Amino acid sequence: MENNLIMYAQLNDNNIVVAISELREKDDRPNMVAIDEYDPTLLGHLYRDGKFIPMTYYAKLDGDIVIDNMCHESDKAKPRSAAWQNTVKLDNTLGVPIGAKYVNGQFILSGSQEEMALRMDGLEDKLTAILKAIKAN
Question: The whole model's pTM is what?
Answer without folding.
Answer: 0.67
